[in-house]
């Protein structure tokens, strides 16, 4: 049996012939590589010259695009022969278009992925799971990620993402029905690794931990997930995620433990420095407790709102906002005490609660934050506006 041309298109692009690399994953992009890639992705048909010119040369002002295309086909053929393949017309011209030969045995991951997805949907129940799991194993990530900006790649990426989600959802459901939570967790974990910002996959992962009796891990995963999604995307947990959290925490109420066990779990294990960062709901609860406390003993506390904009007061683009937020975290770390607390209220706003402080000292602290922020953030277009008031301001109205 002859050597096989192995092609990876999911999670990257590479081609090998036997053990010999034809195109390495980190190879420099070229028009010849793009042609080779497009013909491989459409090897079930002759691709018209007009289509190839539009896809490959759409932004070029070539006087003779047909000649350019002919030259690209020649260079693409050379990629194969340079890897040791016999001199043949692997890329051929026919009927006003180009195609990739069917005589060369090929193993293309995206074709195999689609094949197993189709088999899973159209086969008997007993074989469905194995096909879904095989498709999941083949899916190494987004389709041709380095070429994502190209329209044809973008549309296929979305299509394959949907197919992958279907595979994960169906396989996860079947595994849970069999109470095979170990493998279900592996399926969810792989999906989370590929798509860390997809709440759906994290929901499956947390649910699986809960079903396995790893309740405290599930709670910890929920907290880190919701914090990450809010910090990075500014989104709150879905109703489904919150419902799962209430179900998990509700189950903890039925477990009796000693006071020492509980204290060892809730106490900070590290000698943390600087203000305490928490999610918004924890901040609300802490704020309400502090207000009750200072009403009773006469202490004072101040709450501040820090807002990031550009110098014109308009919202910052994502990359600038990310830089501003990181600088703010750094500024807070070296500006506030351990007894202070802060949270992210929205994509561009933070709330700070300062304990046992008067108005003049609050003004000085906020000035210190502003100075340290400017030290960490060199981008002069990023502006931080600060407003502060007594924690009892609304109570005194």
TrEMBL record:
<dbReference type="InterPro" id="IPR016032">
    <property type="entry name" value="Sig_transdc_resp-reg_C-effctor"/>
</dbReference>
<dbReference type="InterPro" id="IPR051677">
    <property type="entry name" value="AfsR-DnrI-RedD_regulator"/>
</dbReference>
<dbReference type="InterPro" id="IPR001867">
    <property type="entry name" value="OmpR/PhoB-type_DNA-bd"/>
</dbReference>
<dbReference type="GO" id="GO:0003677">
    <property type="term" value="F:DNA binding"/>
</dbReference>
<dbReference type="GO" id="GO:0000160">
    <property type="term" value="P:phosphorelay signal transduction system"/>
</dbReference>
<protein>
    <submittedName>
        <fullName>Uncharacterized protein</fullName>
    </submittedName>
</protein>
<feature type="domain" description="OmpR/PhoB-type">
    <location>
        <begin position="25"/>
        <end position="100"/>
    </location>
</feature>
<comment type="similarity">
    <text>Belongs to the AfsR/DnrI/RedD regulatory family.</text>
</comment>
<dbReference type="InterPro" id="IPR011990">
    <property type="entry name" value="TPR-like_helical_dom_sf"/>
</dbReference>
<dbReference type="InterPro" id="IPR036388">
    <property type="entry name" value="WH-like_DNA-bd_sf"/>
</dbReference>
<dbReference type="Pfam" id="PF03704">
    <property type="entry name" value="BTAD"/>
</dbReference>
<dbReference type="InterPro" id="IPR005158">
    <property type="entry name" value="BTAD"/>
</dbReference>
<dbReference type="GO" id="GO:0006355">
    <property type="term" value="P:regulation of DNA-templated transcription"/>
</dbReference>
<keyword id="KW-0238">DNA-binding</keyword>
<feature type="domain" description="Bacterial transcriptional activator">
    <location>
        <begin position="108"/>
        <end position="249"/>
    </location>
</feature>
């Amino acid at each position: 049996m002859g050597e096989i041309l192995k092609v990876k298109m999911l999670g990257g692009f590479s081609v090998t012939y036997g053990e010999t690399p034809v195109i390495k994953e980190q190879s420099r992009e070229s028009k010849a590589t793009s042609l080779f890639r497009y013909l491989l992705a459409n090897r079930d048909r002759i691709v018209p010259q007009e289509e190839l010119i539009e896809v490959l040369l759409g932004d070029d002002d070539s006087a003779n695009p047909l000649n350019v295309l002919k030259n690209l086909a020649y260079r693409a053929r050379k990629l194969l022969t340079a890897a040791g393949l016999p001199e043949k017309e692997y890329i051929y011209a026919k009927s006003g278009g180009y195609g990739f030969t069917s005589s060369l045995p090929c193993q293309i991951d995206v074709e195999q992925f689609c094949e197993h997805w189709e088999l899973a949907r159209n086969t008997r129940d007993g074989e469905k799971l194995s096909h879904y799991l095989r498709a999941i194993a083949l899916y190494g990530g987004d389709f041709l990620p380095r070429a994502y900006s190209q329209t044809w790649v973008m549309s296929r990426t979305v299509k394959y993402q949907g197919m992958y989600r279907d595979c994960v959802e169906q396989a996860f459901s079947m595994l849970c029905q069999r109470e095979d939570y170990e493998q279900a967790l592996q399926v969810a974990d792989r999906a989370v690794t590929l798509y860390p910002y997809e709440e759906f996959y994290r929901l499956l992962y947390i649910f699986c931990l809960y079903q396995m009796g790893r309740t405290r891990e599930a709670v910890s995963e929920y907290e880190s997930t919701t914090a990450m999604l809010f910090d990075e995307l500014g989104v709150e947990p879905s109703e489904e995620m919150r419902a799962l959290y209430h179900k998990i925490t509700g189950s903890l109420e039925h477990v009796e433990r000693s006071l020492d066990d509980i204290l060892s779990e809730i106490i900070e294990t590290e000698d943390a420095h600087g203000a305490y960062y928490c999610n918004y709901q924890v901040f609300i609860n802490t704020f309400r407790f502090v207000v009750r406390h200072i009403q009773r003993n006469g202490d004072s506390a101040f709450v501040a709102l820090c807002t990031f904009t550009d110098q014109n007061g308009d919202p910052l683009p994502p990359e600038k906002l990310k830089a501003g937020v990181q600088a703010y975290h750094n500024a807070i770390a070296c500006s506030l005490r351990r007894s202070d607390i802060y949270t992210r209220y929205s994509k561009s706003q933070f709330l700070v609660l300062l304990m046992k402080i008067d108005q003049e000292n609050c003004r000085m602290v906020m000035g210190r934050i502003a100075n340290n922020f400017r030290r960490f953030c060199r981008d002069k277009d990023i502006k931080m506006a600060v407003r502060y008031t007594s924690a009892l301001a609304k109570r005194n109205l």
